[in-house]
Amino acid sequence: xxxxxxxxxxxxxxxxxxxxxxxxxxxxxxxxxxxxxxxxxxxxxxxxxxxxxxxxxxxxxxxxxxxxxxxxxxxxxxxxxxxxxxxxxxxxxxxx
Length: 96
Hints:
This protein is mostly helical. It is about 40% helix and about 0% strand.
């Protein structure tokens, strides 16, 4: 088991590292606030909440691609009428 002094030293190092990190974060926050305060008000107008959309412009027309009308599905998958006389099985398919 670790000695209490070793544990206290680890706690002290961790605390000091956290304090340095907090101080660095606070400096960055202060710099960001100063830059935001110094911005030109016109920059703030560039935000998307101030952008509007005018829907009065005419919509483009899409030319028809084909004069044939609606496409049909292939008829290959439609079952055909079964005959009353089924085909005889090949000798290789017969059961023994």
